[in-house]
Every structure is written in C-alpha cells, then in structure tokens.
Design goal:
With about 180 residues, the protein is mainly beta. The chain has 1 helix and 10 strands; from the N terminus they run H-E-E-E-E-E-E-E-E-E-E. It has 2 domains: about 45 residues, no CATH class; about 100 residues, Lipocalin, CATH 2.40.128. It has an 8-stranded antiparallel barrel with strand order 3-4-5-6-7-8-9-10. Strands 1-2 form a two-stranded antiparallel sheet.
Length: about 180
C-alpha cells in the first residue's frame, strides 16, 4: 500500500510541475508530497502540512535590452549636400539632377529628379539609408526602395582646379568618375 501512495504522490508532483505556469497566475499547491513517517508505521503522504506554498514568483522576468545600433560618424568632409546635373539638351531646359545628403551620424538620402527648368523638377526616385566611409571607400546601404541597391565607391573630396568649387568624386565600376558639387 505504501508503494501505491508513493507512486500517486510522485505522479501528482510530476503533474503539478508540468502545469506550473499553465494559467495566468500560479496555482497554489495544497499538497505536500514529502513522505512522513511515524515510529512503527510505513511512509505515507500527508496533506495536512500547515506551511503555505508561495503563490507568487520571486523571479522577475526582464526583457533583453535592444541590440544597440552602431553609430558611425562620417568624415566631416562628406557631411552636407552634394549635387550633379546632366543636361539632356543644348538649350539647358531639361536636366537630370542627382543629390546626396549625408548627415554626420551616417544617414544619407539620395534623390533623382527630372527637371524642365531650374524650378520645375519632379522626383523620380528617393532612397534613404546608412553610409560608412573608411580608407577612401564610401559604402551606401539603402533602407528604402532602391534601384541601385547596396553599393560602394572609392571617393575623394577636393576642389575644382579651374574655379575652386568643392567636389565629391565617386569612382564608378566602369572606370568613370561621377562628380558632385557641394550644394
């Protein structure tokens, strides 16, 4: 008979352990599954233990902190707006205007616009993302829709040798150099 009580107590303990956390609040367990013995009697399970079982957990679950984003400062020479224009006709009435805007915290915006005049431009595409510059290479990682996708350019910032305007030179994979002027 003592073996049956032990098995029932063990099954009850296993069932209670499996259900811990099943409900919205922990359910107090009124049964103490510790066998008790009295002199001359076999081991039995007692349900009359007056010590209460805690109903609340002393463990506080704290969510993991968010993964910190790495903020990479761009070199001061890149920070600002850079613009280039490609005129589509000899009258200068139609042009494609491309603009990069770089922030010190590594954010960038790229805009491509079709212009009918210097004041009548329609934005064809606009992308935003993160930029990094290291060892003369500018890497752009779009976070919005992008026709060009992630890309890297060897770059240099300098002055136009003829008029002294500040320029950003981006070396393209084709070997051509894309020249943007400080805006």
């Amino acid at each position: 008979m003592a073996v049956i009580h032990r098995r029932k107590a063990a099954l009850l303990v296993v069932a209670l352990m499996a259900c811990t956390g099943c409900g919205a609040e922990p359910t107090p367990t009124p049964i103490d599954a510790r066998p008790s013995t009295t002199a001359g009697s076999p081991a039995t399970t007692s349900t009359a233990d007056p010590s209460p079982i805690p109903t609340s957990s002393s463990v506080t679950v704290v969510p993991a902190p968010p993964v910190p984003t790495v903020v990479r400062q761009l070199p001061r020479e890149l920070v600002g707006s850079w613009e280039t224009q490609h005129w589509l006709d000899s009258t200068g009435s139609r042009a494609i205007v491309r603009t990069y805007r770089f922030a010190a915290d590594g954010r960038y915006e790229y805009t491509l616009a079709m212009c009918q005049s210097s004041t009548d431009c329609a934005i064809q595409s606009n992308e935003e993302g993160s930029a990094q510059a290291a060892k003369g290479v500018l890497t752009l990682v779009p976070e919005t829709v992008s026709v060009d996708g992630p890309r890297s350019y060897p770059y240099a910032v300098g002055r136009d040798p003829n008029v002294g305007d500040l320029q950003l030179h981006l070396a393209l994979a084709t070997g051509e150099v894309d020249i943007f002027y400080a805006a």
